[in-house]
Design goal:
By secondary structure, this protein is mostly beta strands. It has 2 domains: about 10-50, Laminin; about 60-155, Neuraminidase. Helix content is about 5%, strand content about 45%. It has 1 helix and 15 strands. The chain has one helix at about 10-15, and strands at about 20-25, 30-35, 40, 45-50, 50-55, 60-65, 70-75, 80-85, 90-95, 100-105, 115-120, 125-130, 135-140, 145-150, 155. A 4-stranded antiparallel beta sheet has the order 8-9-10-11, with no helix packed on it. The chain has a 4-stranded antiparallel beta sheet with strand order 12-13-14-15, with no helix packed on it. A hairpin with a 6-residue loop joins strand 6 and strand 7. The chain is elongated.
Amino acid sequence: MICAVSPITAESVCKDAGCSHSCITAVDIPTCTCPEGMVLGEDSKTCTVPVTILMGMHREISAVTEGEGEVRSLVPIGTTAFDFHYNNKEIIAFADNNIMRYSFAGELTMPKQPSAIATPTSRVSSLAVDWIHQDVYWISRQRSAIEASSLSGNSVRGGGVAV
């Protein structure tokens, strides 16, 4: 009886490895790999985006990524309030007398050039993003009032509720 045996190829080894993204082989041993910005999970097959924690400290926004001990500054010193818009992957922050939008998808590098949403009439002590209605609310220190703007910056509303 004669049996035909298919040769083992790198493609067939990787096909059976179960990698979530990509695979490389060395001596017919598959190794799963991940694209930049992702890490290999404990199962050595699944790529995930590491958790990044944003922190407001010492008048700046910093971040630390899961598994790393280094805390990195993201937004310049002078930031007194911020929130994170998860769906848009943006940091909304009060810095340099403006409420600014910083694009942030988890990379621990300085976010891209920000864009201004609104210029409050006084210092901001805290702010919050309304994800549902696409608004940002802030507390005006001198006016002791809650003010608001659409995230597009088209509609600024002030003097609402006294704090």
